[in-house]
Amino acid sequence: MAEVNKEKLHIKLHVYDEEIEVTVDRADEEYYRRAAKLITDRYNAYAQAYKGRKGEHTISLMTLIDISLMYERQRAKNDTAPYESVLAKLTSEIEEALK
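and the corresponding structure tokens:
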């Protein structure tokens, strides 16, 4: 039980104008801190651009869309399914030729 607690870490994250307390895996602490900074930076950019014209809720959603778009673009770059398909086909052809 003590080993499990050593793997967890209780931290406070500053996200935009709030402090959020979370318990995270020790190995993920840096990712959480970077994520909080990214959210804050993107929110601030939208808040500055749309100050007085959009509400906080809309700015939050715009921030989520922006960050989700970054994630989806990166995920598409890392999609290995097309390569696996080509490798499987080539492997099949090589095996067939070697028979």
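(Above: one complete record from the training split.) Strands lie at 8-15, 18-25.
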